[in-house]
Every structure is written in C-alpha cells, then in structure tokens.
Amino acid sequence: MIIEIDKIPEQGMSLEGVEPPEVLALEQSAEFHPAGPLSYDLYAQLVDGMLIVSGSVAAEMRGCCARCTQIFSTTVSDSGFLRDYSDLQGMEEVDVTEDLRETIILNLPRFPLCDETCKGLCSQCGKDLNEGPCGCSKGEEGGAWDALNSLNL
Ligand SMILES: [Zn+2]
Ligand SMILES: [Zn+2]
Q1: Which residues fall inside 5 Å of ion ligand 2, going by CB?
Q2: Residue 66, helix vs strand vs coil
Q3: CB within 8 Å of 136: residues ≥ 6 apart
Q4: Domain residue spans in the chain?
C-alpha cells in the first residue's frame, strides 16, 4: 500500500482497503498461507515532517493443524499497528506494504492449531478424536487423564 505524501491533508486522512494475498508472500514450507486479502484500516498523519501511520491490519490465514492435520482458517490481526517514517525529504510516496506484511507475520500463532482444545489424532488408529472417541483401549494413560479431569471438576 503506497501513501502519497502530498495527498495527506493537515488533519490527516484515513486509509482503508485491501492488498492481494500475494503481498504476504510466505514460503511454500510456511505453516500458514494467506486465505484472503490483507485488509487495513489506517490513519496517516504528517507531524513535524514525519509520516505517522497507525491503525489495524488483518488477514485471513489458512494452516494445517499440528494435532489433527485438518486444514483450518483463522483471522490474524493487529489493531495496534504504528509506524513512523522520517527522512521524507524529496520523497513523494511511502510504501508501507512491507510493514503491513511484517505485522501479520509477527502475529501468526506459534503453532498451527485448529482449536486450542483440539484433541488430535489417536496415536494408535489415527482417527480424528474431535469427531468422537475411537475404539482403541484407553490403557494407563487414559486412566490418568480421567483422574485429572475429575480433579479439575
Ligand atoms: Zn486440530
Ligand atoms: Zn484409536
């Protein structure tokens, strides 16, 4: 997203819009991939010869759950975007795309999980336990978890 400096009025201006998913340009091996455009709702202001841009950035991302391997999508956003650009001498425009991209990437979850409570796959039969229990015997481990669950209650 390019901000044309001479178009910013004294009181500042709001900038709303979207950038195509390609601007996120994540590596093929990345855990998340864009599932939609990067959207922004920003306010640009010139203060003492410095361009200040603040607002929110969001993007719909798709990931593969690390526990159950299902593809899921999630909205990654940051409402505290704030950047200042100085040294505007002789410049007509400022490209903030890279900073928008960086903000989304910094806000990606550490682990791709479809849901924090995702039960994952059964280690024995591979069934997705979110869909219901499988027929495998619970064994010692299951018993321990049951005991913990009743303690929490
Ligand atoms: Zn999952
Ligand atoms: Zn099983």
Answers
A1: 122, 124-125, 134, 136
A2: coil
A3: 122, 124, 125
A4: 2-117, 119-153
* DSSP one-letter code for 117: T
Amino acid at position 144, single letter: A
* Cα 11 from Cα 46, distance rounded (Å): 8
**Are the C-beta atoms of 38 and 55 separated by less than 8 Å?**
no
> Which backbone phi and psi does 126 adopt, to 5 degrees?
80, 5
pLDDT tens column, 9-48: 999 999 999 999 999 978 877 889 999 999 999 999 999 9
pTM of the model: 0.80
Whether the CB-CB separation of 1 and 15 falls below 8 Å is answered with yes
Ligand nearest to the CA of 132: 2
- Are 56 and 81 in contact by the 8 Å Cβ rule? The answer is yes
